[in-house]
């Protein structure tokens, strides 16, 4: 009986733990990142709070459109690297500009959930659930619509309109990170062996060579 009681107590202890999917809570009002400090922790070392100023919590120009890249989009990030005062606060944001039929290609944020608001245009967006289902959950968004991409899942946005589109996204991390699938798989340094990728994607090696040459 004593053994059974201990086992039940152990299960109750396990059940009492909670999982959190965002950055840890701060332990002080502000912790402005000292980006020049060589010490590296899980985040950035704080500078003396008495030296904090308004510029540490400010970023200008998010109203400006950026020129789209080769895939027809441009992401303007506003995270701890741009606003040092975001350090330990567990939040950041981006502006995304899309050319007509441009896309923000499939990617993931390993440390953040993303919530996206369409400011202009029409976007086809979606994310894929994890193995084994690999289910695509997608929707066409119009101006004023909001969509959520859960933490760590592959997602994308595609401008289905004939004019430029703009979106603002907030992320649940001061430094959410981004892994663009094509860049990571076909543009790694050094390269992943074409033989490995050919077998993984079940195509001929010369096809992999062609794709890798694009990255």
UniProtKB/TrEMBL annotation:
Oxalate binds at residues 104, 109, 114. It comes from the Eukaryota. Keywords: Apoplast, Disulfide bond, Manganese, Metal-binding, Secreted, Signal. Residues 60-209 form the Cupin type-1 domain. GO terms for cellular component: apoplast. Disulfide bonds join 31-46. GO terms for molecular function: manganese ion binding. Pfam families: Cupin_1 (PF00190). Residues 1-21 form the signal peptide. Mn(2+) binds at residues 107, 109, 114, 155. The keyword Metal-binding applies. The keyword RNA-binding does not apply. It is found in: Secreted, Extracellular space, Apoplast. Belongs to the germin family. This is Germin-like protein. The lineage of its organism: Eukaryota, Viridiplantae, Streptophyta, Embryophyta, Tracheophyta.
